[in-house]
Amino acid sequence: MRSLAFSLAGTGMAALAVASRTGDWNLHLLTGFLIVAAAAVLLVRDRSTFLRIPLATFGWEAVVLGICSLAKAEGMWPSQLDDLAVPSTSVMTLCFLVIVLASLWSFAVVRRCLVIADRYFDRDDVLAWRLPRGATLRLREGRLGTAAVALTILLRQVGVILTIKSLYVSAQLADALQAGDRAMFWDALLVQAPLWGIPWVILQLSSTSLVVAFSVRWRQVLAEDYARRWFSGAAHYRMTLVNSGIDNPDQRIHEDVPNFIGGSEGSTWGVYSIVVMITGILSSFLIYAIILWNLSDSIDLFGSEVRIPGLLLWIAMAWAVVSTLFTIWIGKPIVPLAFRQQHVEADYRFGLARTREYSEQIALSHGGRAEAAIIAGRLGAVVSNAYRLLGMTVVMSVLNAILDGVKDRLHIFLLGPMVVAGKLTYGTLTIAMSAFSSVNSVFNFVVDSFVSLAKFKAVADRLSTFDAALDALDGRSGGTRIETAPGGPIRFTDVAIALPDGSRLYDRTSLVLRPGENVLLFGRSGTGKSTLFRVLAGVWPHWTGTLALPPQGSLLVLPQKVYLPAGDLMTAVSYPYAPDAYRPEDAAQALDNVGLGALGPKLHHDVNWAQKLSGGEQQRLAIARAILARPRWLLLDEATSALDADLERQVYEALRRCLPETTLLSIGHRDSLLAYHPRRLRAEPSPGGVVLEDVSSGSSPARHADAAEEMPA
């Protein structure tokens, strides 16, 4: 970006030299635009990567076209290319676009959008494509995105040029019909129209394909990034334990990410589709503004001899500014309504999905009527907010229709009398109509698109708050210290554990759990046993002190309620590792060790195993996972509660036999577990808090804290 800034400044100094020699005030004005644009580029040179793409595109165009304009002013432009000469006003417009783009960084909402977009464009992943003759093309992911966006902008600009060429062909047809000129008519219809129309069609197909293909790729990478961060460090679970204010994170990944990007669906407005659209609009403005300015030289205001330079351009801009401000004032309530609509829609969808997940429990408890009432309540919130949003949308639609009606007839009001008087051809009126509409569309962008922009802002706000919540979880480490102790004991030193509401569960507790010494933790409900396991697993955010833990991957927790992922049985028994992490025969043997040998031949059957297996079978399948994973430490949080005494004994015998070097930490309430755990810790509430008492050796209780209710296991 420094080279662009210096090039703009250098072109500006050259323009100043030519202006001083020729006395052309337009070149003096061009000098100012180029210098200010150079300063703007320098100010944002280290800002958003995504912002720099259109900034660099328009900036380098200003440099190239500025040099061409100066060559024309110096008489160095070839006479054969006079039709392609670039006026200084075009260069000034490009500089103005650079200045506007750079100034966008000062708006907080734009910065939030750019931060999200840059998660893709700052990626360093290297992509590789096989080429003929064994060659390989390697390209960084971020550079691929930069090239795609820049190419999209250039294609849109070329498309605008072809559109204007086609407009002049239409004007030629209109003039030929008006004058009865047969030769002109057939030349326009059979030669000029295909000459510019066919390339335009090819360009549109190429541009649309590029936009859709790249938006899909962008969505894939960005959604994977959000999912990785959401699942990293159990953030998806810890987010429910802190006051993050984040609802339905699954919807934010599934729906808000593609809606933020846009481009993959015709009705979708996103940061990519907005950039593409604005590029086309501003490029049209660049050319049509010059057309309107030149047409204004031949217009007598209302039949008088008064002529105002750029009259049509000033009228279009004035009308657009007034209508834009009026629309923003009227449509301000749409933004919060759109935000809430996404919220209630997600709640409604989540309620339906939850009903499907717990269909058996609902059926057994005859809760269909109650569940229908709950779903109806959530649907009512959707409908109520939708009606309010619909009301504002109708108001905006009526307002847009009125404003568009006035806008579409202003050119007829101004130029119609001249056509009737024979001072202006119908073809020129056609050009003026398109030019007036295009220039007006630049300033009417907010008016015409207010509802879509409001919905886009709601999407951007939801993703930015999701980002903030994930970042906040990453930073929640104050007062905690985790040490890695390979092969050593698990050690609590002055550990304090609290509940999400701030209630203390343990205070300055110290405890040592030695390798090879199986421990049974038991006690009354509400004494924080499961919470203690969550701290050991690294998923509980509300604690302080020092923990010495085994290396990551050597500790496995089996909760009471088993999670079975979608897929075949091999996927379920291998979880959390990939299905190909183990040999099928090893998985079948692990299942046989826990009394599920009949499932061995069904490892590759893809059914809903969460519904097909009973609670006890699911718990035994989880034990089979542990046998395959062979952790150094295995934490069982009532992981055999659904088994009878004989099956529980079989499972623990299998663990003793298959995992002789694994230390077991179990939460349970059955006396049968005592045989497998030489050391026993009893969690007891007391007037001063929860006490962890070692009842296997009669040692003193661990220091304890204020009692509190345990979170549900």
Automatic annotation (TrEMBL):
It is found in: Cell membrane. Residues 490-713 form the ABC transporter domain. The chain crosses the membrane at residues 27-44, 51-71, 91-110, 147-169, 189-214, 269-291, 311-331. It comes from the Bacteria. The keyword ATP-binding applies. SMART domains: AAA. Residues 685-713 are annotated as: Disordered. One of its GO terms (molecular function) is ABC-type transporter activity. Residues 273-455 form the ABC transmembrane type-1 domain. InterPro entries: AAA+_ATPase, ABC1_TM_dom, ABC1_TM_sf, ABC_transporter-like_ATP-bd, ABC_transporter-like_CS, ABC_transporter_sub-D, P-loop_NTPase. SUPFAM superfamilies: ABC transporter transmembrane region (SSF90123), P-loop containing nucleoside triphosphate hydrolases (SSF52540). It is a multi-pass membrane protein. Keywords: ATP-binding, Membrane, Nucleotide-binding, Transmembrane, Transmembrane helix, Transport. GO terms for cellular component: plasma membrane. Belongs to the ABC transporter superfamily. This is Putative ATP-binding cassette transporter. The lineage of its organism: Bacteria, Pseudomonadati, Pseudomonadota, Alphaproteobacteria, Hyphomicrobiales.
